[in-house]
C-alpha cells in the first residue's frame, strides 16, 4: 500500500533497464519500496539492473516482457499481479529511433511507433485493469516534450510519444474515481544512453531529476509533471507559435 | 442490501482507495456480507474517525456498521448498557446522561462508534485512572470470518486480540459496556499554565492522581526557554452541590446540550494552517488561558470534544490532508520525550492540536496502544516538505525508547518497526491465521503493515 505521502511499497517497471526508471526505483527504495519487478527482454543488462537494486535492500524480481509482443502482455503481467498488489507501475520503455534512417526505411519507423505507442497501449491497459481490480495504485507513464508538438528533427519519435501521451491522459480520465491514479511525465532532453551523441537541447536534465519529479508527483497525486518544471511554460508558449515560424526555429 | 463503489479515506484525508461500501441493516445481512465479500476481503467501518487507513480496504469491501445502531438495554441500577456496535458515543451520552450515567472512556470526539472504540481500544483523558475503553467492556458479540457469531467475554484471548485489533478479528455486532455514574452533566475544571516542558512534566507528575481527567495542550512552535509551554486542563464530573441554586443547570443537572457550529466548507485553500497562522493561534491560546483557575463549570462537549462543534473540521487542512502522529514512551524515558519535543519545535511543525498526557497501567489488548508513560499527539499538514523523513526519524527515537505509535492514527509507519513496538504482534498474527486463514478481514492498514 502507499502511505499518506504517496510512497509505494511495491513497484513494477515496464522497461526494466531504463535509466530513468532505475533512478526512480533507487529513490523509492530509499523510502518505502521493498518489492520491485523489472519487466524487460531477458538480458544480462536486466539482471545487472536487478542486482544493483538488490544491493539497496529491495526484493527484486525480473519478468520477461517485450513491448513488441502485445499478445504476451496479458500473461506476463498477469503473473506479476497474481503475486501481490502493485502500488506503482512505471511505464518506462521506449526507443528514439534514428530519424534520418527511419524516414527512408518505413519498416524501422513502424518499429518505433509499435514500441512506443502500440506496446504501451497494450501493456498500459493490462496494468490499468489489474490496478482497478485492486482499487488503488499509480500508473506513471513516461511521455516526452517531443510529443507536445512535432518537430522536423524527430517527428517519428515525437508522434509516437504524442499518441502515448493522449492515450495516457484519456486513460487517466477513464480511471478517475476508481482509486487508480495515472500520471503523465513529460521530460525534456534527458542525458541517458538514448541521447548519447546527440546535441544537447536547452533545459537538459538527468534521470535523477526525473526521479525526484516522479516522487513529488506521487506525493501530490499530480496528473501531469514536466521535468524541469520550466518546460511547462516554454511549451505552452511554443504550442502557439505559427507553423511557418515554428519550422524555421533552431530547435 | 445497499452497496456502492466509493473512494474511502480516513479522517486525515490522505491515501484514498476505492472499495465496495456495504451497509448491512441486520445481523443476518452483516453475516451474508462477510461470507460473500470476495477475494479481497472486507473490514468494518464506523464513523471514519481513525486518521489513517484502518477502515479502508482497496478493491474489497468496507462494512459500514452505522446502520446497526440500536441501544438494546440499559441497566440503570447496575450501570451497564447493551447496544449495537454502530451506536456512537454521542448517542450513548444522549441516552445515558439523563439517567445519571456517562461513558467510561471518551476520546477527543463523541463521533466514534462502540465497535470502533473497541477495535482501536481508545483512551481518553482518564486513562491514568480508568484505563482504555475495552477495560470497561464486559463482553461483545463477534461475527468471525466463517460467518458465525461468537460471544466473547472479557479476559479471553479472542477478547484481547479484538481490543485494539483494528477490526481484523471480525465484525463486532453488539457490546455490553460498564458505565460511569455522574450526578450532573457538567465538568468542574481546573486550568493552569506551565511555562515550559519541565514545568509541565513536574506539575503532571506531582498532581495528576488527584484528577479523574487530565490533559495538557502544548505549544510545539514555542522555542528556547518557553519550549513546551502549555495549558493544563484537569477536572472531574461536577457534583450537584457545585451548581448554584435557582439556576437552569441546577433544575436540570443532567441535561446534555452540545453546541454545534456550521460545518467547514467542502473546499478550503491549501496552506491555511502555516507556521504564521498556527503560531498566532498558539500565542493567543496560551495567553488567553488563565494562569490558574479552579472549579470552573464546563459542558461535557467543551471539556472533552471542543472540535466536535465544527463538523468536518478536518477540511481546514485542505486537499492535501493531514497526518496525526501519536506516540507513547514509558516512564523513565523523559529524555526521549524532551528530545522529540525539542526536534519538533526546532523543525517548526505547524501543529495547533498538540496534546500531552500521562497514561496509567497498560491494557491487556495485544495491539492496544497505551502503556504506562507519556503520550504526545500532534497533527501536521501532510504537504509539509520533508515531513515523511522527519517522522521516520521520530519513529527511531520512539523505538529506541521502547515506545510505540498508535495504529488508529497511523498512516505512514515503516512496517519493520512494528514488532518492536508491539511485542505481542506474533500472538496476534497466529490467532488471525487460525481464526481467519483466508484473510477475509483485511484493510489497507493490515496490507501496509503486514498485521
UniProtKB/TrEMBL annotation, chain A:
The answer on whether this UniProt entry bears the keyword Transmembrane reads: no
State its Enzyme Commission number(s).
1.1.1.333
Going by the UniProt record, its keywords in alphabetical order are: Oxidoreductase
Checking SUPFAM superfamilies in the record gives: NAD(P)-binding Rossmann-fold domains
Q: Which GO terms describe its molecular function?
A: oxidoreductase activity
Q: Which domain of life is it from?
A: Bacteria
Q: Which InterPro entries match?
A: NAD(P)-bd_dom_sf (IPR036291), Sc_DH/Rdtase_CS (IPR020904), SDR_fam (IPR002347)
UniProt cross-references to PROSITE patterns, sorted A to Z? ADH_SHORT (PS00061)
What family is this protein classified in? Belongs to the short-chain dehydrogenases/reductases (SDR) family.
Matching entries from PANTHER family are given as:
5-KETO-D-GLUCONATE 5-REDUCTASE (PTHR43669), DECAPRENYLPHOSPHORYL-2-KETO-BETA-D-ERYTHRO-PENTOSE REDUCTASE (PTHR43669:SF6)
This chain belongs to which protein, by name?
Decaprenylphospho-beta-D-erythro-pentofuranosid-2-ulose 2-reductase
Upper taxonomic classification of the species? Bacteria, Bacillati, Actinomycetota, Actinomycetes, Kitasatosporales
TrEMBL record, chain B:
> What are the residue boundaries of the FAD-binding PCMH-type domain, all occurrences included?
14-182
Keywords from UniProt, A to Z, are: Oxidoreductase
GO molecular-function terms, A-Z: D-arabinono-1,4-lactone oxidase activity; FAD binding
* Organism superkingdom: Bacteria
Q: Which Gene3D superfamilies match?
A: 3.30.465.10, Vanillyl-alcohol Oxidase, Chain A, domain 4
Q: What are the GO cellular component annotations?
A: membrane
One Pfam match, given by its short name, reads: ALO
Q: What is this protein called?
A: FAD-binding oxidoreductase
Please report the organism this UniProt entry assigns to the protein.
Streptomyces liliifuscus
User: The organism's lineage?
Assistant: Bacteria, Bacillati, Actinomycetota, Actinomycetes, Kitasatosporales
